[in-house]
Specification:
single chain, 145 residues, alpha+beta, 7-stranded mixed beta sheet, 7 strands, globular
Length: 145
């Protein structure tokens, strides 16, 4: 299956955002927009036959670092390389924008995400222990230069 990766708007990704069972509480569109306001950012979508099936949202934390904030793939399209394609497209965009580092955080609840990051040469740079080990937060970083 061939997916197309391109810039999108929050309105375009909201349907797939709301279809993600792991997102126990949804941020409103206003909350998403507020987080991105005034920052260089990328909303990237994966399309299959014109339908958004996954997305990745990130923003510049500063002139040097791009933070990959939020992303997911519709459950019916998982295991088909969509997340990997989104990650690669996001890295390429961040690099062309002059960012030198890309960072992301995940939790133990998402082991497939962590495996993908490690396979793509992301390094663990920090760890936040929580009362529930499933919610332990692992911070990753990758050099883009």
């Amino acid at each position: 299956m061939s997916y197309k990766y391109q810039k999108a708007t929050i309105a375009e990704i909201v349907k797939v955002y709301r279809s993600i069972p792991e997102f126990s509480h949804f941020k409103s569109l206003a909350d998403l927009k507020k987080r991105l306001a005034g920052k260089p950012h990328l909303i990237l979508a994966a399309y299959d036959c014109g339908e958004v099936v996954g997305f990745k949202i990130g923003y510049g934390k500063n002139n040097r670092e791009f933070y990959s904030w939020l992303g997911a793939v519709n459950p019916t399209h998982r295991g088909k390389g969509v997340a990997h394609g989104l990650l690669n497209a996001q890295e390429q965009w961040a690099k062309t924008q002059g960012f030198q580092i890309i960072s992301v955080a995940s939790t133990n609840r998402f082991p497939s995400m962590m495996r993908m990051l490690l396979r793509q040469h992301y390094k663990i740079v920090n760890f936040e222990q929580r009362s529930n080990p499933d919610n332990n937060k692992i911070h990753f970083s990758k050099s883009l230069i």
